[in-house]
Design brief:
alpha/beta, five-stranded mixed β-sheet
Length: 358
């Protein structure tokens, strides 16, 4: 008997055992085909279960995370002299990644592009002094720190007045709620260089960064307080425009304003040339070479707190990358337990050693 005939006889016998009757060779052949869809279905179902099992583990170990950072937001994130990512948030996420077993690839970006890049999936998440806020397309980690908003201005650019007993803030609408000033009094006390007198904002212009929490808050009180907003892209633009006389105030978080104040003061240092400029204001060297363009020369720089709290977190797409958020929380807890959190906050003079925002 030939090999082909033996195979046909074998399948014919199997068919007879299943159905208990004899069938011809043609029926046996098509009978064999009738089991093909069932076999393919079982194979596909097994593959699907295997794939789902891999996705449900939520493991982040061994992964490389593409993380966007604000490229110009010292002290949280910026590019150093060699164009490498630096700052508090950069060191924070690197320390967490080391503890949780993943690596980070930083993607320095214009701050206004961070949110859209997270939403579209170009980057996994974003950091760099990003304020936690309500957004339909975004999720945030727990807050790792907080500060208050403030205004930077030249002492001669506006008249000062005694601070009002009811400061600017959303809580002034209800007497039953505690004022924003009461909530943030301890934070403002930590800022030794912050002015205690509120400058007049009526008819003034305030420089803000596009897409920032600062811009959102000031827009909410703009009409009530009678000022206008000038929107720019980066911190460097805030400094350049203000030094050129375009805008009475710079509005940002207090740590950012403190860094700006230090940088601006270096512009007028005697004997200093472009080589001594901080890396994020190298573009302002023309103001040093042509002093007449610096409308702020000789002014005393002041910073005033608006008593509006900003809380910082890791930003991801809505409902996405939950394993990264969990790893962030775990790593942050470990840093606070082993002391590296306190070391890092002292290095950058950010937050208090016992801060633990909820």
């Amino acid at each position: 008997m030939h090999k082909r005939e033996r195979c046909e006889s074998f399948f014919l016998c199997i068919r007879e055992e299943i159905f208990g009757k004899r069938v011809d060779k043609r029926t046996a052949f098509f009978g064999k085909l009738s089991y093909l869809p069932l076999f393919l279905f079982i194979l596909f179902f097994a593959f699907a279960l295997s794939s789902c099992g891999k996705k449900s583990t939520g493991k982040i170990q061994g992964r490389e995370i593409r993380l966007g950072i604000d490229r110009d937001n010292a002290p949280f994130s910026y590019l150093d002299e060699e164009k490498n990512p630096a700052g508090f948030d950069v060191e924070l996420i690197e320390a967490i990644a080391k503890r949780e077993g993943f690596t980070v690839k930083f993607v320095p970006m214009n701050p206004s592009a961070l949110q859209s890049s997270v939403v579209t999936g170009t980057i996994v998440g974003a950091m760099g002094g990003i304020e936690i806020r309500e957004e339909k397309q975004l999720s945030f980690s727990e807050a790792y720190g907080s500060s208050t908003l403030g205004l930077l201005y030249g002492k001669d650019s506006s008249e000062t007045k005694e601070q009002s007993s009811v400061p600017m803030g959303r809580s002034s609408e209800s007497e039953d709620q505690p004022s924003v000033s009461e909530k943030q009094s301890s934070a403002s006390e930590e800022q030794s260089s912050v002015s205690e007198k509120q400058p007049s904002l009526q008819g003034k212009s305030i420089l803000v960064k596009e897409g920032s929490g600062t811009a959102t808050f000031l827009e909410s009180i703009r009409q009530k307080e009678g000022f206008s907003l000038l929107v720019v892209q980066e911190n460097q633009d805030l400094i350049r425009e203000w030094l050129a006389g375009n805008g009475d105030f710079i509005a940002e978080d207090l740590p950012v304003l403190e860094a700006m104040k230090e940088e601006i003061s270096k512009i007028d240092e005697p004997g200093r040339d472009e080589d001594y400029l901080p890396p994020d204001i190298l573009g302002l060297s023309e103001l040093d070479l042509q002093k007449e363009k610096n409308s702020r020369a000789g002014q005393e720089i002041e910073i005033f707190s608006l008593k509006e709290e900003q809380r910082y977190g890791l930003m991801v797409g809505k409902g996405q990358n939950k394993e990264l958020l969990r790893a962030f929380v775990r790593g942050l807890k470990k840093m606070k337990e082993d002391g590296e959190w306190e070391t890092l906050t002292k290095k950058y003079s950010l937050f208090s050693s016992n801060s633990n925002p909820q």
